[in-house]
Structure formats: C-alpha cells, structure tokens
Amino acid sequence: MTDLPTVPVGAMSEAGAPGLRARRPAGPRRSRAHRLSRTDKTVLTVMVAVPTALVVGLVWLPALATVILSFSNWDGIGGLGTIHWIGFDNYQNVVTNYPPFKPAIEHNLIWLAVMFLIATPLGMFLAVLLDRQLRASRFYQTSFFLPVVLSLALLGFIWQLIYSSDQGLLNAVLGTKVDWYGDPSVNLWAVLVAASWRHTGYIMLLYLAGLKAVDPSLREAAQMDGASERRAFFSVVFPVMRPVNVIILVVTVIESLRAFDLVWVINKGRNGLELISALVTNNVVGEASRIGFGSALATIMLVISLVFITIYLATVMREDT
Amino acid sequence: MSRPQSESEYLSRLVPPSVSALSRRRFLQASAGAGGLVGLSALLAACGGDDSGGGSGTSTVTFGSNQSDDVPKKAYATMLANAGKAAGVDVKVNTVDHNTFQENINNYLQGKPDDVFTWFAGYRMQFFAEKGLIGDVSDVWANMTGMSDALKTASTGSDGKQYFVPLDYYPWAVFYRKSVFAEKGYQVPKTLDEFKALGTQMKKDGLVPIAFADKDGWPAFGTFDILNMRINGYQFHVDLMAGKEAWTDPKVKTVFDTWRGLLPLHQEGSLGRTWQEAAQSLQKKEAGTYLLGMFVGQQFPAADQADLDFFPFPEVDSTIGADTLDAPIDGFLMAKKPRNEAGAKKLLGALAKPAAEQDYVTSDPTVIAVSSDADTSKYSPLQLKGVELVKNAKNIAQFLDRDTRPDFSSTVMIPSIQAWIKSPDDVDSILNSVESQKKTIFSAQ
Questions:
Q1: Residue A282: inside a domain, yes or no?
Q2: pLDDT above 50 for A14
Q3: Among all residues of chain A, which has the CA nearest to that of B273?
Q4: What is the DSSP string of A168-195?
Q5: Which among A191, A271, A293 is the top mutation candidate for probing chain B, defined by the most B β-carbons within 10 Å of its own β-carbon?
Q6: Positive or negative, the Cα torsion across B193, B195, B199, B201?
Q7: Which domains, ranges and CATH numbers included, belong to chain B?
Q8: CATH label of the domain that carries residue A254
Q9: A38 domain-assigned
Q10: Would the pLDDT of B3 be above 90?
Q11: Is residue A302 located within the same domain as residue A215?
C-alpha cells in the first residue's frame, strides 16, 4: 500500500549502525555475508559429492544389485553373461524348500522381543539411575558401557569361558552339565544373555545423553508440584524425551535384525542359532557361493527392515508437520 | 587496546588470538591436504607392490598355501625350499589362514591367484576345472612315476585331463587306544553285529563306545559316507554324491536307519562338541573308539602316539565287504593363467617326487605320502598300517564335502544331518527336504 522504501530485515544484523538504506533492487538478496565465492562452491560440492559417491557406490548400488541378483541363480563364477534369470524361484525355495529359514525368522523375532522388552528397558532404567549425582557415577557408566567397546573376538572368548560345557564357569558354579552352546533349546537364550549385556550398555549411554539434555526446570517444577520420582519420570521427563525414545526404538530394532556376530563366532548360525543374517552369509560367502539364493534371503531381510523403517519415518514426518 | 566500537567487535575480542589465527577455512584446507597426502602415499605404495619377477637369475613361482598351523607351515616351507631348488625356481610362499583360504576360493581363483596353490582332489577340484578356473597339468602327469591309477583318476577332471598333483592323504577309520582294548580284553570287530556287541560291552564297562562330535557340521559326514559305502556300495555312493541318485531312495533310508541303531552307542551332546574335544575324550580313555581321519593323532601327545591304532569300519553286507574307505587327498593346483607357467610346471613336477612328499610327511605323522616310491622306513607303525589299508582298498572316496557340490554340502547337508542327529525319527521328512533342495541346486546350471 505504502510506497515508502521498505527496510529489509537483514539490514539490522550487519555491522555498523542500522539506518535507512537506499531502496534495494528486487531480486535475490546479495549481501556480502551470503554470497558464496567460486572456491567455496567447489569446496562444498566436493565435500558433499565424495561421501555421496561413497554411499551410493558402496551401499545403494550393491543393495540394488542384491535385489536384482535375487532373481537369478548365479554362483559367482564367470562373467555377468553367465547369469540365468529364474524369476521368483529363489523366493519360493527360501520359503518352502529351506529348513533353516523358519527357525531363523523365529529367532530374529525372539531376539527383537527380548531386546525390546528386557534389554532396552533395562538400559533406560540404568540411565535414569545414573542421571543423579552419584559419587561413582563415572565408574558405573564406564563399566556398563565396556561391553560395547570390547571387540567381538574378545566377547566370544569371554562367553566361551563362561558357557563351555566341560570347562566353563557357569557349569562349574552351578554344578550342572548343561550344553549351553550345543543344546538347541538353550543356546539361543545363552546367546541372548550375552547380546543383552552388550545392548544394555549401549542403550544406557544413549539414554543418559538424552536425559542430561532435559531442562532441569521441568524436574524442579514437577518436584514442587509434589510428584514422586516415578511419577515425575513417567509423566514429565519421558514425554519430553520423545525424540530420544524414537531413536532408541529404531536402534533396538536395527540391532535385532542385524544380529550376527556372536552367533557366527559360536557355530556359524546352525543348530538352534539360525538368524537371517547368518543364513545370508552361509549362502553367499565362502565356497557355497549360492549368490542368487543368498541374495533372495538378503532381500527378504531388507523388506522386513523396511517395514520398521517406514513406521519410524512416518512417525517422525508426522511430528514435523 | 581501544574500546570496541560495536557488539561484534567486542565478541570477536573474546576469542583468544591463538584460536582466531586458525580460521575454519584454513583448518579444512590443512586437513584436506593431509588426507590427500596419506591417500596418495597409500596409492603409490599399492602401485609399487607388483612383483617385477623374472629378470636375471632364477625365475619366481608364487605359491598360495592354506597351511596356517605351525607344524604344517614349517613342513611346507622346508618342502617348498627343496622342491624349488630341484626345479630351479625361486618359490615365494603366501600363507593364508586355513578356513579363510577355503572360504575365499571363488574370489581368489577369479582374481589373481598364485601360480600354484594347495587344494583337494575330488569333485571340489573337478568343479573348478569345469568352470575353467584352474590350469591343465596333464604334461606334468606324463612324466610322473609312482602314482597309482586310483590317484590319477582322482586327479582327472571330467574332460579327461589332469588338473591336480597329489601330495598326501589320510584314511578315515575307527581309532582306538591299544592299551584300553588290551586292558578290557576287547577284540577288533569284523562285522557290524560284532561292533554293536563290543559297544554294549564298553557301555557296561563305563566307556562311551563311539566318540562323536558334529559342532562344525562336517565330521558326521564320515559316518554317513562309510555306512553308505558299506551298505550300498561305492558306485551308489559316488552317484548319490554326483546328484544322480535320489536321497529319498530306500537305500539311503536304510543307511540312516542303520545309523539310528548305532546312535545309542555314540557320545551324547555331539552338536556342542568339536572333533578336537571328542579326540581328547578318546585320548583320556573316556571313549572307546572314534571314527575320524588319521589327523585324530594331532590331539594325542607324543607319549601316547604309539598307543593309537585303528581298524577299518566293519563290514555290514558280506557281499560288499569292507574294502572301500574315505581317504581324502591333499595336493596342488595350478592357476589358469599363471604368471610363470613353465616355472610352475617344473615346481609341480618336483613336488610330485617322493622326496618332496617325504619332506612334508616326516614332520606330520598323521598323513601318508601318495607316491608308491616314497620311503616308508621312517613311518610310524600307524602310518605303515595306513599305507597297507589304502593299498588294499578297491575304491577310495574323497569325503562327502569333497565329493559333491560345495553349495550342496555346506548349505543343505550340514543343517540336514544336524537336524537328523537331533531327531533321528524324522528321517523321512529330512530326506524329502534334502532331495527337493538337491534338485534346485544340481539342476541350476
């Protein structure tokens, strides 16, 4: 309406006294602080392009290749010209003609349930306990987080010393002769104890970091209103930690679907310790080289993960709007 | 220090000079430069890593070895040094961890394999020959002496050419401790019924009759192989391995039923036990017998080696007898396109001589040299017995995981046999599933 020159908002933030400026030309703002020089642009492009190329080349393209190869029965030998395309035969075989598959899915779901219902809540609980100003809080934090830092080979060795049926600590202390690793009705639970031990520390650290970022005034307000500790946590702190909760959930799901290392080190994922990731490795890596079949297994794993990822993204996107 | 004229000037003075001197831009430039330097030097090092080879003096032949354990590694080093001298070539040995070598074999062969490398006879070798991944060494075989016909057959591919140069083998048999048998007055059984009676007697005496371990999946194949060969004959076994017979055939069911009859005599909890632990239970006199390869001796201390003895698995069918056994052969292959083909063939010729085999066998008393010209004077009584056993054998099999397709043996047979051990009564459903999986794998190409 008015034809007085309008003062652009940015003018106030520049060095020097704010004041009326001459009318700016219409078009893109071109203040000195925002214009990028040519060198800047090149540096930025390179810094973005290199990681993107790595991710696309080392993650996306192989994933795509896996999905494509799952429709073939290639054995990895010979060039790409030797590939026979067999449509959905591999998937049919995986579901109907492959005895380890059903146990593997069951075990992955059990793994997810245990992580979700026991290991993660335990980690959160420990984080809440350590959030106060305890005297030896640093020590507790380190000792809980140590399993996460230890290498896989070391973990396998430690638990072998505990679980060995003839010479292990557990059987010596309990006086039993249980075959912890060899008995298929027991070994999954034995491995889950070892995996939860690690997972709890990891979750504890993530949650502790989130807790420390919670505004202390919220807690004080709850305290002044007369809320007990439990009430304060569940009604005030927990809802505020929503982003961290979602991250914890996603981490738990991903770690359960990805579970592989311990099981592989113990007995290559057989006899009660079948997991989808171990089946993929059994088929693809090594002399077996059933690339097509293994790729079908890997694609199934990808699809299952996508279900959870989609739920997570939908939740996060919904929050932002 | 003048007064700051504006807020931003005041704020900028809060940053110490040492920090402000290092601007973000300069830091990024420096780290990019450092990263580039590291990357460049790594690239140069990788480029410069190729062997120059050849030139003046002796030529070099590269040798890929999977003998990563101490004893075989040293034995191989001696053997290769001597063989290299005899052949007039320099041998460069690359040792890789035993299991890793086998697992990466597909990538290894399609990449840049060493000129000569260790491998096994049997279908596992013929498979690679068919795919054109290994080199033809028939001309080396033309000059070889001391190799029996059975060995030549085991080294021949499906196209009639030889690809494999054997070094040593070890028979699979039922091992026992002489002192235990003497103390308890046991006799070596000649038939399956005698074996069962012996087992019952051992149980009464507080011993586990037959040690058993199948945590790794493959040791149980030995029992399957020998039972199949005793009950159905060598030819049926070979055809079954090649996928020409059905696993749902009643003959195969008979094998599993016979095995189920023997299971009460086997050690319990086999799926959590490694073969090393089972061999130790034989050594500790907790078990009476153990069906395994001669490498069981590796778990016996030197003092107990003389006490170890074996008998061939007893006969089941008198019309078939007991003259077939598993005796896997280890040896060498040549790459399809070796960098030094002439040198590689000369080395293989030298390795096929009895002298090379003796170099290896003297340090490892659990294997036997293949050549009939090999000097057996330094053999232990066990090795001599093994030589007799194989010499008198009419047919030699290579062990299930070397006689059949590797993908079938590792992804189908291992889980299926383990499932059967867990529930021996489910034999029908297990065999049906093995057969249907076999069809998808064997018909694939």
A1: no
A2: no
A3: A182
A4: -HHHHHH-----TTT-TTTHHHHHHHHH
A5: A271
A6: positive
A7: 59-170+328-390 (3.40.190.10), 172-326+405-442 (3.40.190.10)
A8: 1.10.3720.10
A9: yes
A10: no
A11: no
Q: How far is CA B50 from CA A198, B46, B60, in A?
A: 43, 8, 13
Determine contact: A87 vs chain B, CB below 8 A: no
Alpha-carbon gap, residue A307 to B193, rounded angstroms: 58
Q: Is residue A139 part of a domain?
A: yes
- Looking at the fold, whether A202 and A233 belong to one and the same domain comes out as yes
The token duo for A313 is 């993204």
Task: Pick B440's closest partner by Cβ from A43, A97, A166.
Answer: A97
pTM: 0.81
The secondary element (H helix, E strand) that includes residue A39 is: helix A38-55
Q: Does B262 touch chain A (CB under 8 A)?
A: no
Dist CA B81 CA B96 (whole Å): 18
| Whole-number pLDDT of residue B400 | 93
Residues of B in contact with A165 (CB under 8 A): 269, 272-273
Sorting pLDDT into bands at 50, 70 and 90, what band is B206? Answer: very high
Confirm or reject contact between B131 and chain A (CB < 8 A). Answer: yes
Nearest-Cα distance to chain B for A136, in Å, is: 35
Which of A43, A182, A286 shows the shortest C-beta gap to B103?
A286
Q: What is the pLDDT of residues A167-216, one digit of tens each?
A: 789 988 998 888 888 888 999 999 999 999 999 999 999 999 999 888 88
| A156 within some domain | yes
Q: Is B423 on the interface with A (CB under 8 A)?
A: no
What pLDDT was estimated at residue B6? 85
pLDDT score of A2 more than 50: no
Q: Which domain holds residue A142?
A: 111-266
Please tell me whether residues A249 and A137 are part of one structural domain: yes
Check CB contact of A166 with chain B, cutoff 8 Å: yes
Cβ contact B411–A282 (<8 Å): yes
Q: Is residue A179 less than 8 Å (CB to CB) from chain B?
A: yes
* Same-domain pairing of A149 and A85: no
